Amino acid sequence: MANSKRILVSWIGTTDLLSMASCASQTVQKKVLAACQRDRPLTGRGPIKTLVESIAFDEVHLLCNYSDHVGRDYVKWLGHGSTLREIELTNPTDYPPIFTAVDSFLAELITKPSQLCIHLSPGTPAMTAIWVLLGKSKYPATFYQTYGDKYSETEIPFDLVVDFVPELIRDADRTLQHLSERSPQQIRGFDQIIGNSKAIRLAVGRAAKAAIRDVPVLIQGDSGTGKEMFARAIHQGSHRASGPFVAINCAAIPRELLESELFGHKKGAFTSADANHEGAFEQADGGTLFLDEIGECESAMQAKLLRALQSPPGKGPCHRVFRRVGESKDRISDVRVLAATNRDLIKRIQEHAFREDLYYRLAVITIKLPPLCERSTDISLLADELLKQINSEFAIQEPGYKPKSLSDDAQSFIRKFPWPGNVRQLYNALTQAAVMTDRDILRKGDIVAAVPEIPIAPTDVMERPLGDGFNLSEHLDSIHRHYIQRALEASGGIKSKARKLLGVPSDQTFSAQLKRLNLWD
């Protein structure tokens, strides 16, 4: 650590601002006094200026939760090449939002070996407590305090922290449980996830909670539900967001080359190995490795993956040990592993096609993505957003391209269609319709022509072939869902009218049916 940078972080406190105000212009002074709710400034340098003029730091990063951008005025006054992060806090004594803001800030800041220094004096007691908790655990730091014009390096025994950590974590978890009540656009890293249905919010809430923990996650879902998009969102929502994200499709790589793609190979290890190759575990060092279609790996590859996922005793959960093909020396990397599959891995385990021990290494946390048919309230929003993306892409490729929009009958068809290929199929259908249509408005016929899987006609509903994946409960649910959606559309979304159209005897029964079929939040 001798050659690493000394980085100071601190909140800007009231005393710091009032000290700056004493030698600021009348305009700035008036703004500071209003922000701090004080009637006069203070003399002296203030805690932060006292410390930075006493000790040399390579970088100074300040957090500020005051209004009117007074932090910007303070940074200019302080000098020392300091930088500012403005944080919006409704309550500066509320532990969970302070924890979230500081943890995110430090995760972005500390990406390389450095000597972190934390100034404890400025800010509220809650802010100080969060600095201590993080500085004694996740981000080891040296603590400083100031009093008047003097400073001191402060030793904080770890025993003082231990009793408070579990309580803080419980509070944070209770806050995170409410993420399912927020839309994806409100959660850091998940803003590219489109939709606001209960099913997608629950999946996003679970994924966002998993993102902040450095543990493996298994993402399950049908083809086209957005498993890789969720994996990228988890990466972006984690403290590894500034590191690499490497995706490997285990089903798309020939089995004889998969080991090399994952672990790398030495020059001459096999016939086509004409140079040394760095595998995905090395490429993803410091970041996230996404293993898509993990259920397609053969048993020999599963054994090699298991070894890499078993962290040695005393090492962190992301400590990976592996060997390049053709080498006899172990290599080490720091990689969080996310995996995805559209297969039933429990069933594969029962069939002896997938290792049970590997499953439990991958599935520390599991996230099930809902099919599009369970996100009926999202379909129109998805179609509009996807068509905007298509229009933007085509406008770049084709000067003079006229953006497309959807007619009412096209929107109605899109809402009713079951989309067995999920979001990917919807995107492909819209793309094909936009390519093949000269009109500015896409009609129902344009979408129908782009969909090879036409829904079974009502006259054929009793003639579905048995076997080959047929599931009676799912089939009956699809019929049930179809008629309820028809009734809701015919009644303009008024539940009481839809219930009467269907002959359902009571509102309570109808509400229970809507909830069970994920047709109403």
Structure commentary:
By secondary structure, the protein is an alpha/beta fold. Helices cover 43% and strands 13% of the residues. The protein is built from 22 helices and 15 strands. It has helices spanning 14-21, 26-36, 47-52, 70-78, 95-109, 125-135, 158-162, 165-176, 198-211, 227-236, 255-263, 280-283, 299-309, 345-350, 356-362, 379-397, 408-416, 422-436, 444-449, 472-490, 495-502, 507-516, and strands at residues 5-11, 59-64, 83-86, 114-119, 142-147, 150-154, 217-220, 245-249, 288-292, 319-322, 331-334, 336-341, 365-368, 405-406, 441-442. The strands form 4 sheets. A 6-stranded mixed sheet has the order 3-2-1-4-5-6, with helices on both faces. A hairpin with an 8-residue loop joins strand 10 (319-322) and strand 11. The chain is globular, with a radius of gyration of 28 Å.
Structure characteristics:
521 residues; six-stranded mixed beta sheet; five-stranded parallel beta sheet; globular
Shape: globular
Number of strands: 15
Number of helices: 22
First and last CA, distance? 53 Å
What is the average of the pLDDT values?
Answer: 85
Strand order of the largest sheet: 3-2-1-4-5-6
Strand content: 5-15%
Q: SS-based structural class?
A: alpha/beta
Rg (C-alpha, Å): 28 Å
Show unreliable segments.
162-180, 455-459
Tell me about the biggest sheet? 6 strands, mixed
Helix content: 40-55%
Q: Any chance you could write out the topology, listing elements then pairs?
A:
Blueprint: E1 5-11, H1 14-21, H2 26-36, H3 47-52, E2 59-64, H4 70-78, E3 83-86, H5 95-109, E4 114-119, H6 125-135, E5 142-147, E6 150-154, H7 158-162, H8 165-176, H9 198-211, E7 217-220, H10 227-236, E8 245-249, H11 255-263, H12 280-283, E9 288-292, H13 299-309, E10 319-322, E11 331-334, E12 336-341, H14 345-350, H15 356-362, E13 365-368, H16 379-397, E14 405-406, H17 408-416, H18 422-436, E15 441-442, H19 444-449, H20 472-490, H21 495-502, H22 507-516
Parallel strand pairs: 1-2, 1-4, 2-3, 4-5, 7-12, 7-13, 8-9, 9-12, 14-15
Antiparallel strand pairs: 5-6, 10-11
Helix pairs in contact: 1-2, 5-6, 5-8, 9-10, 13-15, 16-18, 20-21
